[in-house]
Amino acid sequence: MRIVVDTNVLASAVYFGGKPFKLLKLIMEEQISAIASKEIVEEYEEILVRLQQKFPKLSKSIPFQDIVGKLTVINVSSDIHICRDPDDDKFISCAVDGKCIYIVSGDNDLLELKGYEGIEIITVARFFERFDGQSQVK
């Protein structure tokens, strides 16, 4: 299963745990393929650094470089402009070019779209509602 993970989900996983961490663990165990572009990886890093500076007592559950090592980073050629927040278009472009079936997000600008060209945009909670107990996700 190929997915794109929005930055807010990754940041929540790294610093706050819960279902986002459970999703990250599946990625780290290579039970799910997380697809990203260079631009998305740069945004991940920027936000994680910003959170660490703002909340220095927070500790990371998994080092960033370990996470990047588990991502499939692709070159994106699609240039999709559909989100009301143009910064979120990169996730859709990446999902299209990466032949993903889901974008997992907590961002209302993405979630309101519900999907694009057969790619569903869902929350982490919805992801686990659908896939807990199935053989493809443990």
Written overview of the protein:
The protein has about 140 residues and is of the alpha/beta class. Helices cover about 45% and strands about 15% of the residues. The protein contains 7 helices and 6 strands, in the order βααβααβαβαββα. A 6-stranded mixed beta sheet has the order 3-2-1-4-6-5, with helices on both faces. α1 crosses α2. The radius of gyration is 14 Å and the shape is globular. The model has no long low-confidence stretch (mean pLDDT about 95).
- The backbone outline, from C-alpha atoms, is globular
Q: Report the major sheet.
A: 6 strands, mixed
User: What's the gyration radius in Å?
Assistant: 14 Å
**Model regions low in confidence, pLDDT < 50 over at least 5 residues:** none
Strand content: 15-25%
What's the helix-strand series?
Answer: EHHEHHEHEHEEH
Averaged pLDDT, please? 93
The structure class reads alpha/beta
Secondary structure layout:
Layout: E1 2-5, H1 7-15, H2 18-28, E2 33-37, H3 38-54, H4 64-70, E3 72-74, H5 89-97, E4 102-104, H6 108-111, E5 115-116, E6 119-122, H7 124-131
Could you list some keywords that capture this structure?
138 residues; 47% helix; 15% strand; 6 strands
Question: Concise description?
Answer:
The protein is of the alpha/beta class and 138 residues long.
